[in-house]
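My current task is to audit a protein record that another person submitted. Please read both lines and tell me whether the tokens look consistent with the sequence. Do not assume that whoever made the record got everything right. I have pasted the whole thing underneath without changing anything:

===
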Amino acid sequence: MPVINPLTVADKVTQTLKTGVFLTTQVDGKADTMTIGWGSVGFIWGKPVFTVMVRRSRYTWSIIEKSHEFTVSVPTHDMSAAIKLCGTKSARDIDKFEAAGLTAQKGKLITTPVIAGAGMHFECKVLYKQDMIADNLDKVTAERWYGDNDWHTLYFGEIVTAYED
């Protein structure tokens, strides 16, 4: 698997986020994956960082809170059916890997797996997290995206390795 420089593919990742990528995490041997459409790749605190947002109501949130790590698998080919399923179903109710025909592949440097065959993978360890504060977001955006008060936690994950399969 060729290693990639995450900062050189940041634009491609940003474009792919618009159609969805897989955020995966694992605790006690149980992996979960979900679709995210918001995030960013950048350079913070002298390190390459992938920032992801997870709502507190999501099952994935409870796992990241325990594992302190996650992977992001960016499809480089059509995986729209799996992206849709993982964005609309909860691992509380179904095995999303089985239902979406996905295979968890062991990560290289962390416990959390990646989505086999997706294309591009980022393994991340949480450096910092921050619950969103309602008063800090402009009112129009808050009303549009958080009318139900289901706010995100932002996770800043150090990219410990990135590669293509």
Q: What stands out?
A: The mean pLDDT is 92. The two ends are 5 Å apart (CA to CA). Residues 13 and 74 are 7 Å apart (CA to CA).
